[in-house]
Amino acid sequence: MPVLCSSCDDKRAVLKRPKTGHSLCKACFFRAFEEEVHQTILAANLFKHGEIVGIAASGGKDSTVLAHVMKLLNERYNYGLELMLLSVDEGISGYRDDSLETVKRNQQQYELPLKIVSYEELYGWTMDAIVKQVGLKNNCTFCGVFRRQALDRGALMLRVDKICTGHNADDVAETVLMNILRGDIARLRRCTAISTSSEGEGVVPRCKPLKYAYEKEIVLYAYFKKLDYFSTECIYSPNAYRGHARTFLKDLESVRPSSIMDIIHSGENLSVREGVKMPVQGTCNRCGYISSQTLCKSCVLLEGLNRGLPKLGIGKHHRLHDKILTQQPLTEKEERKLKSVNF
Amino acid sequence: MCQVEEEYHGPLQREELPSVSKQCMKCKEAGAAVVIRAGDAYCRGCFKEYFIHKFRAMLGKNRLIFPGEKVLLAVSGGPSSCSMLSQVQEGLSQNAHKKLRFLPGIVYIDEGGAVGQSVEDRRRTVDQLQAVFRATGFPFLVVPLEQVLDLPSSVVLSAPGAPEWKAGAYKAAVDHFLLSDGSSGVTAQQQQETPPLEVQEAHTHSLQRLLGSARTLTAREELLNTLRQHLLVHTARSAGYSKVMLGDSCTRLAVKLLSSISLGRGAQLAHDTGFSDSRYGDIILVRPMRDYSAKEIAYYNRMFSVPSVFTAGLETKTADKSSIQRLTESFVTKLQADFPSTVSTIYRTSEKLQSCKSLASAGGDRCLLCVCALDTAAENASAFSATLISEQLSQTQSPEQSRPAPEAPPPASQCCSAVGGEACGNRGGGCCSSAEASEPPPLRSLLCYSCQLTIKDLSSEEVLPHYILSEAQRRLRRSQLREEIRDFLLEDEADEG
Ligand SMILES: [Zn+2]
Ligand SMILES: [Zn+2]
Ligand SMILES: [Zn+2]
Ligand SMILES: [Zn+2]
Ligand SMILES: [Zn+2]
Q1: Where in the cell is it found (chain A) (predicted)?
Q2: Is A250 within 8 Å of A52 (Cβ atoms)?
């Protein structure tokens, strides 16, 4: 006997919601998924009428579903937003070429303007060239740091008021776990925020409309909507420690499906003891980007790449920032330490 | 897409292999007998000194235990709590200026009934533990978990009169104690034999039915933890103790922190894992073993023949993925093997957290089960409200229902809503005035986020012990009453009950 949809009690259910366990028909699932994103946007006051919003588009499932739903809700509920796709070309042959093709198709399907900024034009280095110098072990440090700034710079170029990213509930929960495992209390406090307000010059506010959407439901949504997305993982895969956290989260979800939301709830309700030192946010002395050090992470990484000292940006070498800034030569001992990268 | 959206402080380092030095790093004379962390090698004598010093330092730093105060040591028989017991013994036998000055007693909660042990097995375990306890000379209590069924409702209230320890109070108490020659008081404490209470079979069955009603091992463990804590607090209260010492090690607390996060207990973390836990008001729980790793404790116990007694737990024989607690434990253990700084890093996180002060001090509502401040105010854009919305959107909708209220069915007929503009939410077409006829609001509303998850996993709420259910009824009646007179109240006052 077919199972009836628990929402309309009329049509045949085609899926079991990973988030709540309810059996739903296609139409009711679409409605529930979209309505939840809408409620999140309303409740968190993410946008204002008339704003220009850049959707960070990578061609992957999260950003493809985000672009689709944002476009749909903007029309359905008359948000009055001017939407555009914002893409970063890291210069990873094979991976990026294909995913950018997907983004370009999305642009046509959704009739949204697309802007692509490349690492090469921003930094003078492609990821492929970086990997040649630093090896596979540390490349994600570069990938992540450069990516964050690239989006900001692209957004500034396009005069975008806000960026929204495809981070989903699984990503947020995983980040909570990661920050606990790393003992990073400052990020632990920040990472569950649904939006970052403008933190300084050159930083565009960001938000995560899919913050409460389960990854599995995003996949289901894309599948039933037959959305066109690129499904290969970044070939320069994330580090092992995050991999452990991810596996742990998946295991938790299989024991108790609400775990993902439960972890986010935990993160939202943590309270940090007074007197615990938090890094002071300032700006980078070289490029003006937000940074807790004299030089921002991306400037230090670049300096390391350009000088042929790739380790400079990877370890903790804050002491050297002043030297770099004033263009003093490093001692032989310092050079030696920073040159060797163990692969 | 690359998942590393945030910059790193640098990759986590795998710890280098310990340089095996043959000499004690402390006295630099004797040969090393134990290596705790990379490079930390101690001889037997120095290890003992280091271990004992750490215990006293933990108590000294926090200045929470007053001289002459009665302190109940909760001993489960495991290595950590048995090690704690031996540390208290050491502390009392030290010379004057290093001596601990509180009055210890021991409690053992016998959970054999909950895990289906035979009466003979339970007696054997209790006999072994009693031998250990007797040897200390401290008074001790053996309390079967079945007694939790007979607790008074006062257990789930935070008792008033938790004295805020003033800055000078500790010193004043010490001075007073020294003047009155308190040393005699410590040793003069009598060790009375209280015969272990006979457990009725019917009680054991009720307890088993209660725990068996949990459909998941996760919920069963949470329930057991809650019941055990209630019984501990009640035992301390009725025997005149004001502090309860728990034997949680650093390793244990790291697991607890991570599983608490996974269970939605972020708001309660500081209570669950901190040095002191004042949620019960007059009885304060302290965790003096929180600086020791499980490994250190094992070394110490073996080297200095500290006895411990194996007791069966709920999860002794189960697979890794059977519960969230169990899964977390195996995750932390495996990660610790690869990255030896895992436990200490997680543990340090716990030191930087505090419980939501604003909630706790406002005298607001507390959870019926865990007695922590409620964290379920459905604020805009929270995981809690998002979950309610998801549930609501996945269930049959009626046109009138537009706001998230997943439990309340729409009124069947004309009701007082016509006057108040709001549905009163009772079934069967009755009206608010007939309070008896209306379905009571769900027990869930009295629980924190995490305890709601636990209760959701029970097949029936009716199996909960009487002291919890009767307190629930009292609170629900009060909130119903408050609802009825709301229009006449000038301020939205918190319920002091
Ligand atoms: Zn349907
Ligand atoms: Zn910079
Ligand atoms: Zn990458
Ligand atoms: Zn020594
Ligand atoms: Zn609770």
Answers
A1: Cytoplasm
A2: no
A295-333, pLDDT tens digit by residue? 887 888 888 888 877 666 666 566 666 676 677 777 777
Burial of A23 (0-12, 13-18, 19+ CB in 10 A): buried
* Cα–Cα distance for residue pair B35/B219, rounded to 1 Å: 39
> Which chain B residues are closer than 8 Å to A17 by Cβ?
390, 394
C-beta of residue B79 within 8 angstroms of C-beta of residue B311: no
Instruction: Choose among B141, B116, B117, B137: nearest CA to B196.
Output: B141
One DSSP character per residue, B230-291 reads HHHHHHHHHTT-SEEE----HHHHHHHHHHHHHTT-GGGHHHHHSSEE-TTSSSEEE-TTTT
B3 touches chain A (CB under 8 A): yes
* Cα separation, A124 vs A114, whole angstroms: 22
Burial B428-443 (b: 16+ CB within 10 A, else e): eebbbeeeeebeebbb
Give long-range contacts, CB 8 A cutoff, 24+ apart: B339-343.
B339/A241, B339/B12, B339/B14, B339/B15, B340/B15, B340/B37, B340/B38, B341/B12, B341/B13, B341/B15, B342/A181, B342/B254, B343/B250, B343/B251, B343/B254, B343/B293
B464: left (phi over 0), alpha (psi -120 to 50) or beta: beta
For residue B72, the cross-strand partners are: B105, B244
Per-residue pLDDT, averaged over B359-385, amounts to 79
What dihedral do alpha carbons A340, A341, A342, B2 form, nearest 10°? Answer: 180
Of B490 and A167, the structure prediction assigns the larger pLDDT to A167
Give the integer Cα–Cα distance in Å for A13 and A24: 4
| pLDDT tens track for A66-122 | 999 999 999 999 999 999 999 888 887 776 677 788 888 888 888 899 988 888 888
Instruction: List chain A residues with CB under 8 Å of B393.
Output: 7, 31-32, 35-36
Whether B262 has its CB under 8 Å from any CB of chain A: the answer is yes
Q: Is A57 annotated as a binding residue?
A: yes
Residue B353: beta bridge partners?
A272
* Interface subset of A 88-117, CB within 8 angstroms of B: 90
Contact criterion met (CB below 8 Å) for B66 and B242:
no
Closest CA to A175 of A192, A161, A159, A160: A192
From ligand 1's centre to the CA of B398, what distance in Å? 13
